[in-house]
């Protein structure tokens, strides 16, 4: 089953690897010099959703996901990219690698240093010197220019195809960009936004091609801006500016370092904390070292009292549920017991895009199941659903197939 792919982008030293480590709880290199992260790290993070187990008043035993205290954590793929520098689109630094990996992502988390502790080149400086608004613009420009370069490079060939009538523009662009997770719908939307629908492609100016590239980036790589290092003094003003300048793009205040500290403290049994919670509980205060006490006090005062959570889990959830508009769907084989064939209760939770049907769900499970599918049953109401029924969030679905499958 294709998992949602989330690319973490941003300049060096903004906290991308810290965010990645916190979200995946895997140890990867964290450092303060350019190109610490030489290869993209790929790891599993989770989207958090209110599980249906409490509504059905049943104790579940998930297989493809995790249920903790009534919250279902569904795996998503996180990709930690090398820091992007100016000129990446021309192949500077690890630019090409960065852009190749960015092209695999369904959605981007753009991590910025809201405290202004990095300069334009991504080097650490005193807080307040750097400008995170400019940093966002720089990275967006790199992505725009990367797409522009691809379009410009194929421009002559596409014009020839149009002249010889061997292809039309939208299918030609769809084919050209298919490896970048850019779809026909993205292209149509970008044409509309650029008001280039009625202008023949061969008459587009350089600026119009750039405008199209910029709009294509916007629609095909939806982005959450993560205003990281919010715990550092002065970060709030930049956070407010980011909201103002980039609306309607969601800007999530965040302290990746606080999340990492909490998840580590949790796995050491020092605190009770569930990613995404607005609270954490110290388990045995007397057993903490002075350093640990100070760290938890810092997290309470500088993060939870300011933004009420660390923002790491929330940023992922906004990307998955708000930008990609995923719904959580629970397929079962027995609509009364809510089990699979082995008796596991609510075994799986799938992320399905808005508009997906029960047929699409069957395809995700197995193409044989989809091919022999007769209808589906809504476990909540026991009502029969046709193949083209459009799935809703938290649906629990049994698929009924011919010849004993399902
Ligand atoms: N105060 C503070 N520092 C952070 C936070 N996140 C990361 N850092 C620090 O910023 C520096 C760069 O972090 P890193 O994750 O390596 O950045 P990357 O180059 O973007 O991957 C490290 O010293 C981190 O400890 C945060 O939320 N708050
Ligand atoms: Mg890094």
Could you characterize what this model shows?
The chain is built from 13 helices and 14 strands. With about 400 residues, it is an alpha/beta fold. The protein has 3 domains: about 5-140 and about 220-320, Rossmann fold (3-Layer(aba) Sandwich), CATH 3.40.50; about 145-215, Helicase, Ruva Protein, domain 3 (Orthogonal Bundle); about 325-400, Roll (Ubiquitin-like (UB roll)), CATH 3.10.20.30. The strands form 3 sheets. Strands 1, 2, 3, 4, 5, 6 and 7 form a 7-stranded mixed beta sheet that branches. Strand 12 (about 375-380) and strand 13 form a beta hairpin. Helix 1 runs parallel beside helix 9 (about 255-265), helix 4 (about 130-165) packs across helix 5 and helix 6 (about 185-195) crosses helix 7. The chain is flat and about 75 Å long. The model is unreliable at about 25-35 (pLDDT under 50). The structure holds guanosine-5'-diphosphate (GDP) and magnesium ion. Guanosine-5'-diphosphate binds next to helix 1 and helix 9.
Name some characteristics of this structure.
7-stranded mixed β-sheet, alpha/beta, Rossmann fold, 13 helices, binds guanosine-5'-diphosphate, Ubiquitin-like (UB roll), flat, 406 residues, 5-stranded mixed β-sheet, Helicase, Ruva Protein, domain 3, binds magnesium ion
